[in-house]
């Protein structure tokens, strides 16, 4: 598991390390060590982390998955943003910061993955 992936996932839910630790029933120091790559979680803990964030254990090693660099996901996000603008939910495209755009891409990708898994 890459520590930066866990940190991005945790940040996406606006959780502190201690809040995430509480959710997973592990220590805050464990989360800190995972995020700094000083310790690797057990398979059981990795599964719990993946389940909590609605990703696969394999995704925990894949920073590209988390960063939303997948072109298909970005195309979906572009369409979503167009719809948000058309419906006046977003009225000023220049006021959407890059972090919000990335969060939208990330959220859409997670939902797509979830729907695909549900259909399987």
TrEMBL record:
Name assigned to this protein: Transcriptional regulator
Organism: Inconstantimicrobium mannanitabidum
């Amino acid at each position: 598991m890459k520590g930066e992936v866990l940190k991005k996932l945790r940040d996406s839910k606006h959780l502190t390390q201690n809040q995430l630790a509480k959710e997973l029933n592990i220590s805050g120091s464990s989360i800190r060590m995972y995020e700094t790559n000083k310790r690797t979680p057990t398979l059981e803990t990795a599964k719990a982390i993946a389940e909590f964030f609605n990703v696969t254990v394999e995704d925990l090693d894949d920073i590209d998955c988390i960063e939303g660099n997948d072109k298909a996901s970005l195309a979906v996000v572009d369409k979503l943003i167009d719809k948000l603008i058309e419906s006046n939910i977003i009225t000023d495209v220049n006021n959407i910061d890059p972090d919000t755009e990335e969060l939208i891409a990330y959220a859409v990708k997670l939902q797509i993955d979830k729907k695909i898994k549900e259909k399987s």
